[in-house]
Amino acid sequence: MPELPEVETIARGLDQRVRGDVIESVWLGSKKEPLKSPAAEIVQTLEHQRIAGVRRVGKHIVVDLEPARKRAKSGPRAQWIVHLGMTGRMQVCSPETEIAKHTHAIARLASGRELRFVDPRRFGRLSVTRDFAAPGSEPLQVAREKFVDLFRGRKTPIKSALLNQSLLSGVGNIYADESLFRAGILPRRRATTISREKLGALFVAVQEVLREAIALGGSSISDYVDADGQAGFFQLQHRVYGRESEPCLKCQTPIKRVVIAGRSSHYCQHCQK
DNA sequence: ACTATTTCCTGGATGC
DNA sequence: TGCATCCAGGAAATAG
């Protein structure tokens, strides 16, 4: 399940592999769910564009494009936006590679390779735009004061607030649980009841967790993304996520699991207040 | 303007 | 072995 660190790793891997290549033609599948822009618009926007670079914004992969042939007039550059959802993959492969089940898009590149979007569950989304911006703040860029202000006054549980992409862009279920454990905050705590100091601790915890995970993902780029664009991640050692009933690594109290905002949430009732 | 809940999807795990 | 059921979760849609 790609959250910020995984998307960062994938975007870096893609950038290494396809930057400078030119999209010659595009094929789109018949399933409509993955397409957020009209199919014709996606095809028209992508074809004959050079990939200027690939980067991450929130949980989105942004493929920056530029005209393959220089034109006199240069307006805002086109962008291909990819959201991987739960099960989305970006595959770089040769045209001979068997087309995986649930392949929804194929971009044929001038280098002879193909860039494919595969997504069994179809929670992923493809779109094109010229002015992409994530609605929320980047967790690794935002200032501490701004971070604290995002949550103050909100009655919703802090876990829900962390998952709200229009506040903070890129934190998903796993890293939300891990950050709250490190900051010693119960996921159900109403955001508004948390002191500035404690929110400051959460700020530090979120950045720490994301940076550690990116560092681990980064080390896997050459080994895994090279193969087919699907990164095999060295998972960050989770301290609470997926550890229901197992002993807390700090105090041995069994980890609890509850559902908040429809998501499984893991915490230690002794270490988190 | 917020907040909470439901819905979309398939494959893997589980239960009988 | 086979079949039904449940569960995972990002974010849009819907409801309150």
Succession of helices and strands:
HEHEEEEEEEHHHHHEE
- Major beta sheet summary: 8 strands, antiparallel
Please tell me what the overall shape is: elongated
Mean pLDDT: 90
CATH superfamily of the largest domain: MutM-like, N-terminal
Q: What's the CATH architecture of the largest domain?
A: Alpha-Beta Barrel
- The CATH class of the largest domain is identified as Alpha Beta
Overall helicity: 25-40%
Descriptive overview:
With 273 residues, the protein is an alpha+beta fold. Helices cover 29% and strands 22% of the residues. An eight-stranded antiparallel β-sheet has the order 5-7-6-1-2-3-4-8. It has a two-stranded antiparallel sheet with strand order 9-10.
List keywords for this structure.
8-stranded antiparallel beta sheet, N-terminal domain of MutM-like DNA repair proteins, Helicase, Ruva Protein, domain 3, alpha+beta, 2 domains, 273 residues, DNA-binding
Give the topology, please.
Blueprint: H1 4-18, E1 22-28, H2 39-46, E2 49-57, E3 60-67, E4 79-83, E5 89-93, E6 103-109, E7 114-118, E8 125-129, H3 144-151, H4 158-163, H5 173-183, H6 196-218, H7 221-228, E9 256-260, E10 263-267
Antiparallel strand pairs: 1-2, 1-6, 2-3, 3-4, 4-8, 5-7, 6-7, 9-10
Helix pairs in contact: 1-6, 1-7, 3-6, 5-6
The chain binds a DNA duplex (16 and 16 nucleotides) through residues 1, 3, 33, 59, 83-87, 102, 119-125, 154-156, 160, 163, 165, 172-173, 261-264.
